[in-house]
From TrEMBL:
This is TBC1 domain family member 2B. InterPro entries: Rab-GAP-TBC_dom, Rab-GAP_TBC_sf, Rab_GAP_TBC_domain. GO terms for molecular function: GTPase activator activity; small GTPase binding. SMART domains: TBC (SM00164). PANTHER family: RAB GTPASE-ACTIVATING PROTEIN 1-LIKE, TBC1 DOMAIN FAMILY MEMBER 2B. It comes from Cajanus cajan (Pigeon pea).
Length: 395
């Protein structure tokens, strides 16, 4: 996609994609709720203030795009690939320093956002998807989709059930063509990894990947690297054991990072997993505006799954004062849903996620997971035994 276009061509293509949103004069005067399409074709509903925020965000994106183009011009089109600092003596100090400089620059840039037109190329390279794809024949995806065509499994039946419920009303996803493309990606992966097969939530993730990556094959490999390398194991298996572990880890982190909120929610007997399970399984794609979601994904594909915890904690932290004034579960859910729905400025969210929540290393998260795994597996085993005993009683 990018090999035949100059940087100038890409810049013009990028600029044309980012339109300024203009609500009608009647909407401005009355401050009514307005509807408009965002960059990825989703219908967004908000007030005029939300539109103004989005316009400001898009101007920031334009400015950020200029930084990326300048770096590509000075360092080369694939400068961000040269960020690995080797250990061998053959690597000179100057090369090590160059790689370190690139790595620091890249981390800051990605947290500020990857320009939409560069997202497919940068995600594919930095996530490890390109490397994963290179280990199999070029025809792998085509051969796989042809081999599984017409086969019926519990996974394919669930996929067919979920297709029309995946971002209904979207101008491309909610069409026969969009459904067919999404189905091929999901069915192909369900056969690639039978342990995962298909889990509800993956349809939203794969759909958004399709919109960003433009091609089914690239979306397939992004889904593969996400499930096999980026996220924790067993998040999407039949018993969702990995997801249960993540929820327990999150509850512990909430107690440490936001003790006032955790204490108040405990007094209301509110289980945060009622809300956060969907955040983790759908990677915020059902909760946050698409442009904010993709800014979060920019960082996830570079820094890993720990980012999900930072972002989830940030959503709670941003509404700490409101949450501790709630009196029942319904109010809590309403505050969180209203917050995520109107998070049109990704910088607001990511600033809290990384500056106010504080650093959390992958190693720290891994230790927390290992701590929680035995209890989760014990609970799941007890649940299975109860279900089996009920089946015996029914006979």
């Amino acid at each position: 996609m990018y090999g035949t276009k100059s940087k100038i061509d890409l810049a013009f293509e990028y600029q044309s994609q980012v339109a300024v949103l203009r609500p009608s004069i009647h909407s401005r005067r009355a401050n009514l709720t307005v509807k408009f399409q965002d960059l990825y074709g989703f219908t967004v509903e908000g007030n005029v203030d939300d539109v103004n925020v989005l316009n400001e965000v898009r101007e920031k994106v334009r400015q950020q795009g200029r930084v990326w183009w300048a770096l590509e011009a000075s360092k080369g089109a694939n400068w961000y690939l040269h960020t690995t600092i080797g250990q061998g003596s053959a690597l000179t100090s100057s090369l090590k320093f160059s790689a370190l400089t690139n790595a620091i620059t890249l981390k800051k840039l990605i947290r500020k956002g990857i320009p939409p037109v560069l997202r497919p190329k940068i995600w594919f390279s930095l996530s490890g998807a390109a490397k994963k794809k290179s280990t199999v024949p070029d025809s792998y995806y085509d051969d796989l989709t042809k081999a599984v065509e017409g086969k019926v499994t519990p996974a394919t039946r669930q996929i067919d059930h979920d297709l029309p419920r995946t971002f209904p009303g979207h101008p491309w996803l909610d069409t026969p063509e969009g459904h067919a493309a999404l189905r091929r990606v999901l069915v192909a992966y369900s056969f690639r990894d039978s342990d995962v097969g298909y889990c509800q939530g993956l349809n939203y993730v794969a759909a958004l990947l399709l919109l960003v990556m433009k091609t089914e094959e690239d979306a397939f490999w992004m889904l593969a690297v996400l499930l096999e390398n980026v996220l924790v194991n067993d998040c999407y298996t039949n018993n969702l054991s990995g997801c249960h572990v993540e929820q327990r880890v999150f509850k512990d982190l909430l107690a440490k990072k936001c003790p006032r909120i955790a204490s108040h929610l405990e007094s209301l007997e509110f289980d945060v997993s009622l809300v956060t399970t969907e955040w983790f399984l759908c990677l915020f794609s059902k909760s946050l505006p698409s442009e904010t979601t993709l800014r979060v994904w920019d960082v996830i594909f570079y820094e890993g799954a720990k980012v999900i915890f930072n972002v989830a904690l940030a959503i709670f932290k941003m509404k700490e004062d409101e949450l501790i004034l709630t009196h029942h579960v319904g109010e809590v859910i309403n505050v969180l849903q209203m917050t995520t729905h109107h998070l049109f400025d990704p910088d607001d969210l990511l600033t809290v996620a990384f500056d106010k929540i504080g650093s959390m290393t992958t190693n720290t998260i891994s230790k927390q997971r290992k701590k929680q795994e035995p209890e989760v597996m014990k609970e799941l085993d007890q649940r299975i035994r109860r279900l089996n005993s009920l089946k015996v009683d029914d006979k």
